[in-house]
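Researcher: Please translate sequence to structure tokens.
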Amino acid sequence: MIGWGDVYKVVAATAPLYFALFLGYGSVRWWRIFTREQCDAVNRLVAFFALPFFTFEFTLHTDPFQVNYRAVAADVISKAVIVAVIAVWARLLGRNGGGKGAAGWSITGFSLSTLTNSLVVGVPMARAMYGEWAQQLVVQLSVFQAIVWLTFLLFVLEVRKAAIGMYVDVGRKNVVHDAAMPESPIKADVEAAAGGGAVAVLVVGGAEEVGGKPSVWRLVKTVAHKLARNPNTYASFVGITWACVANRLHMELPSVLENSVLIMSKSGTGMAMFSMGLFMAQQEKILACGPSYAALGLALKFGLGPVAMAIGSIAVGLRGDVLRVAIIQAALPQSITSFIFAKEYGLHADVLSTAVIFGMLVSLPLLIGLYIVLELIR
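Model: Translation complete:
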């Protein structure tokens, strides 16, 4: 049962995040320390250095041979349910003539519904509610999120960025038959991202393809090249590979390497919140995306996510306290990493920042309420 001491532990884990957020906000809004370009550089530092080391460090210490594979299967099914719901929504939106930007909002919707801040909020909450085994289950699902879902998010963001890059404006000197280009979710998203000024010209091997879709092979090569240069692609896979070897052969990482990784990983969460503060300070309002999008983000996070996880858990036969922990884990606040990626790739960073900041504020009473409800329906 949750006591006041357990509530204090959760608050103590989250309060430092808001301290870093406050420093970032004040650095731009009041003290004028950073320019816009420098703020972008800070976010890139977090995206390409701090977060990969953070991911690598916490995957190092997991035990892959003690994973609850049924809970992992439930997680996969829940994500499939969410993808199906988003796909139906995007299709209906396209039929009603509102498909512009559907691809981008589908990515953001997936991020809001699925990616959780498991380590900061989930671990102390799970331990307080159900004990050590629940904490380990949350950590296992967090590692799986880093390996699969964050990598998947990175992949679709790179695909979107590459597709937008292929629709380049080569100037009005070229004759372009844009009207002949068939409407598609990615084209609509490209037009929305370019402010409606994108021109459907694809340069392939020095030749211009007018009015056509991007070459799939060129798209694949571009995305593969970008992912190969991104350390986030390797961090979780290298970490889990070492964890498998270390647990099987009872090895430990040399202390010099452990400390080298640790000194960078410790900056991950704090610098991510600092970067979010920098971003907030550049917006006109604290609630950057407006109340309607903020409410949508909270509904997806605390509504669709847990419901989908309940469906997946029941489908694989999870029962009792394991089922309850799985549902509560899906209702944890928004992943900070999702904002860093959204800012880096220029996709609804205002919505993600609002989801992270206000999601953590409301998560404690919501999670306690959900815990009570799940206990009552035993």
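Researcher: Any highlights?
Model: The chain has a mean pLDDT of 86.
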